[in-house]
Every structure is written in C-alpha cells, then in structure tokens.
C-alpha cells in the first residue's frame, strides 16, 4: 500500500509521499538549486551519500550527532557554519535525512539560514514519517526543556520511503507507533481498530496494515495543521493544533527529567496513559477507553509509567508551550475523537492519576 497526502498549509501546499522507493522522486524536486546541503546523523552517512548522488548538483554532506544530541544550539550553529562554508545561497536547498531529531534540526536550519531557504524532508524513522517531518514544527531543545526554540516552517516535499525502515530497531518502530496511536485517540478510531486487530502486524514495517496506519496518521496531522498551522490558543472543546499535543505535557517533562535519554514515543506513551486517567477523573472518559490505552500502548511494547515521583516532573510541565502564565493547560479526551482543553486542572487529581499508573 502507498499513497500521497497533500498538506494544505498556510505557507503553501506540499505533498507527503508514502511509498517504497519514494526517494527516487528526489531529482524532480531539486528545482533551480545550484547547491544542496544534506543534514544527517553520522549513522546514516551511507544513505546521505545515496541522496547526494540523486540530487545531481554539488552537494555538501553535513553530519550531525545522533538522536537528541542533534537538537542543541551548538549543533545548530555548527550547521550554519557548514552552510556558510558551502556557500549556500537563496535559491539553494537543504535536505534533512534521518529521524525526527534530524528533521526538527534540519528544518530549523533551513528556516533560519538567510531567513529561509528551500527544504526537503527525508524522514527515516516511523516517528519522523508520521509526525515530525509533517506539519512544519521545527526546532531544538534547551537544557530547560524540549523544543523551546524553533519556528513554523514548511518543506517543499516530504519523501517517506518505507523501504528505509527495515534497518530500524523494533523499539524505534514502537516509539513511532505511539504517535500513530495518539492520532487514533484524538481523531481516527479506525487507527485503533486496525492496531487492536493485530498488534504484531501493526509493528511489521513491511505489512499493508502498517502502511495504512502510517497514511492514516499523516492524514490526521495534515487535517489538523491545515486548520490551525500556528497553533492558536484553543478554548474548551474548540481545539486546533494543540490536539496533537495529547500526552505531551507529561511526556516532554519525562524527556527532560531523563536527560533526553528516553525515546520521545516512550515518554508520550506514559503521558497518554496518564492523560487517559486524568480525563476519566475530570472529564468522564469511560473506563474501556482508559483500558484501551494500556492495551494498545503496552501491547506495542511501550511503557505506561516512569520511575520518578510526580513532584519531580511537575515543575517542567509549567514550561509547556500550552501553558499561559501560571496556568497549566492539558489536552484531555471526553471520548475517542473528542478532545478538550483542561485549563488549571485540580493538582491533586493530576498527582493521583500519576500514582495510579500500572507499574
Ligand atoms: N516537529 C514535530 O512536529 C515533531 C513531532 C513528533 C516528534 N518530534 C521530535 O522528533 C524527535 C524524535 O524522533 P525519532 O523518534 O525519529 O528519533 P531520532 O531522530 O533520534 O531517531 C531514532 C534513532 O533511530 C535511528 N534511525 C533513524 N532512521 C533509521 C533507519 N532508517 N535505520 C536505522 N536507524 C535509524 C536514528 O539514528 C536514532 O538513533 C524528538 O526530538 C521529538 O521531539 C517532532
Ligand atoms: O505538530 C504538533 O503540533 C505536535 O504537537 C506534534 C507532537 O507530536 C510533537 O512532539 C511536537 O514536536 C510537539 O511540539 P511542542 O510544541 O509541544 O514542542
Ligand atoms: Zn510528539
């Protein structure tokens, strides 16, 4: 199974191509660029060389550290230096090749270099294909927290070549599926049905079921982003892009607490298991849907709890981008597909829900 999802973004439409062999479309997307920079993590240097050979114009390979170590101010500045040395001008092109950490960084490099040059994303992890490379959030972390510096910036195209996923570790596949399951709970119950029907097949990156899950998650994200690209403040049940942050307030706090050593999907898995319980206690979410969180996330091999007291995580939650002043704002679920904003929730409920997570 393959397909193309059109993202009707505020900055102009673009395609997310999902197919085995999508990389072969790269030459037709280079446009009038006379020079290309390929930003990639060191472990994917062979793939980056393949990309360079495809573009057909002089190309500079820009290796960056792997995983969250790429998303730092120092690495960002190193990339700018590399682009300066390569002489990348306004008509030129940045290509990000790698997981979500690389595409977040590379997108921000493209957004900031000369105040914006063309960008093509080649996501190579499940998480980057279904989420990070789509929708225009780019940026880096600070010691104070996740994604605190960045920009909304759209690519010219996103090429999701499913054949690249065969080398991905099983735990990384599961991490990406956490975002897919998130899309199921916030918007597309068919995702939940497909995953429930066969969890093993859902994790098989060569299966049709897997490809359908990927396409459905990208479609959810494309729809949300088309309606609210820059994440306007949501009020009550009128929720825009903030819906995509389901599970992320606690998830990002966990990532920070763990020194960015936990995978993003693992952290938001705990965040969703927690929000399901908070939603049960404050919004009347039914017990079956709470159980479905545990069944799906746990069944995919994702964690449902984190080994630190809630009090250690709570301060970082206040630096969440959804917070307004001192008020914490969480994305809650009334039912599958019915998202709402919980503004200033009862703190004792938050702590109680955390303590009740299965350990
Ligand atoms: N911008 C957004 O909207 C958005 C959305 C979701 C997540 N994110 C961000 O994405 C990041 C997580 O992305 P991730 O899970 O892809 O992590 P990652 O980039 O660290 O990739 C995970 C690991 O898999 C390796 N890898 C990637 N592709 C591979 C392949 N084809 N074969 C073998 N190994 C491969 C990477 O080198 C890395 O070691 C987080 O920083 C998160 O905040 C951003
Ligand atoms: O695209 C969005 O909007 C999201 O919230 C998607 C999230 O899965 C993603 O992790 C995003 O990077 C979180 O953004 P942040 O603004 O909370 O840092
Ligand atoms: Zn996420």
TrEMBL record:
GO terms of biological process kind: amino acid biosynthetic process; aromatic amino acid family biosynthetic process; chorismate biosynthetic process
GO CC field: cytoplasm
Cofactor requirements of the protein: NAD(+); Co(2+); Zn(2+)
Catalytically driven reaction(s): 7-phospho-2-dehydro-3-deoxy-D-arabino-heptonate = 3-dehydroquinate + phosphate
GO molecular function, one term: 3-dehydroquinate synthase activity
Positions annotated to bind Zn(2+): 179, 248, 264
Keywords per UniProt: Amino-acid biosynthesis, Aromatic amino acid biosynthesis, Cobalt, Cytoplasm, Lyase, Metal-binding, NAD, Nucleotide-binding, Zinc
Domain 3-dehydroquinate synthase N-terminal: start-end pairs: 63-174
Metabolic or biological pathway, per its Swiss-Prot or TrEMBL entry: Metabolic intermediate biosynthesis; chorismate biosynthesis; chorismate from D-erythrose 4-phosphate and phosphoenolpyruvate: step 2/7
UniProt entry tagged with the keyword Amino-acid biosynthesis: yes
3-dehydroquinate synthase C-terminal domain: residues covered: 176-323
Binding site for NAD(+): 66-71, 124-125, 137, 146
Cross-referenced InterPro entries: Dehydroquinate_synthase, DHQ_synth_AroB, DHQ_synth_fam, DHQS/DOIS_N, DHQS_C
Main localisation: cytoplasm
PANTHER family: 3-DEHYDROQUINATE SYNTHASE, 3-DEHYDROQUINATE SYNTHASE, CHLOROPLASTIC
Similarity comment: family membership: Belongs to the sugar phosphate cyclases superfamily. Dehydroquinate synthase family.
Official protein name in the record: 3-dehydroquinate synthase
Organism: Tessaracoccus flavescens
Gene: aroB
